[in-house]
Structure formats: C-alpha cells, structure tokens
Write a structure and sequence with these properties.
Elements lengths: L4 E7 L2 E8 L5 H8 L18 E4 L2 E4 L12 E3 L13 H8 L9 H14 L5 H7 L10 H20 L1
Parallel strand pairs: 1-5
Antiparallel strand pairs: 1-2, 3-4, 3-5
C-alpha cells in the first residue's frame, strides 16, 4: 500500500502546502499539477531537455529529476518567480523578447532560468560560459544565435543596473 505525504515548499517566496503527494512524485509534477504553476514544461522527463529547469536553493535543477518531498522546506524559484509581483518582466525575460529569442516557447522557461542563474553570478560571461550554462537546454525552433544575443542584452542590462 502506497502512503501519501504532506509537506510544504517555499515557492517563489511563498510557503505552499502539498497534501497527499505520492512518494514518487517529481517536483515538476507537484509544481504543475498540484500547485498550478504550469510555466515549467514537461517534455522528456529524463533531465535531457531542460524545459523543466527551476532553481532549488539557488542551483538550477531539472525539476523532473527531483522528488518533490526532497524539496520540502527548500527554496524553489520557477519561471513564474522571475517577473515582479506587478508582472513587470525581468531583465532576462525582456531581453529574450527584444532579441526575438522566443518562438514556440516550449524551451523558453528553462533557458530563462538557466540564464538568470548565470547572470546572478557573472554579469559579463563570455560565449563559452554562456554556452556551457545553457547546454542542458534544447531549443528546436529559435536557434541559438538569438538566444546568445538575448543573453548579451540581459547581461548589459544588469551591468547598467549595477552602475546606476
């Protein structure tokens, strides 16, 4: 007999209760199906595509590979947490729009999370560093040229904010 679990997550700064979760449920499943945060995408469920990338205690992870119960009482930031409470886009989100780095949008949440994490630690990354940071994210439509341009735009915006 499988027993269910109750626990809480800290998602985008808010404590969220998870009730009757099954022990094998992934963080991705809980975020999407139990908490209604559908921004992280469900694609490969093997950690290969990056569409489900979130930040867990500041580190990027594929949420499809993390057991939800293992994230109990830890800080989870999803794509919904990048924009401000007033729904103002983050610098990375705006840069992706400005550079035309969004087409079908399926890979976009994971890429945005990876780029945001990179720019939090390095606001002037070289191309190799950027490519390494996004290497776990697959994009089939946009092409990486526009994505690299978006990262440059976001990095420039962050440097400008820091100097103001």
């Amino acid at each position: 007999m499988t027993t269910s679990e109750d626990f809480s997550l800290v998602v985008n700064g808010s404590h969220r209760s998870v009730v009757d979760a099954l022990p094998g449920e992934s963080l991705l499943f809980v975020l999407r199906e139990r908490l209604g945060l559908i921004g992280s995408k469900n694609a490969c469920e093997e950690g290969e595509c990056g569409s489900c990338t979130v930040r867990l205690d500041g580190e990027t992870v594929c949420s499809c590979l993390v057991l939800a119960a293992a994230a109990a009482d830890r800080e989870v930031v999803t794509i919904e947490g990048l924009a401000s409470e007033e729904a103002v886009l983050s610098d990375v989100q705006q840069a992706f729009l400005d550079a035309g780095a969004v087409q079908c949008g399926f890979c976009t949440p994971g890429l945005l999370m990876a780029v945001d994490a990179l720019l939090d630690t390095d606001d002037e990354p070289d191309e190799l560093t950027v490519r390494e940071a996004i290497s776990g994210n697959l994009c089939r439509c946009t092409g990486y040229g526009r994505i690299l341009d978006a990262v440059d735009r976001a990095a420039s915006a962050r440097r400008t904010q820091v100097t103001l």
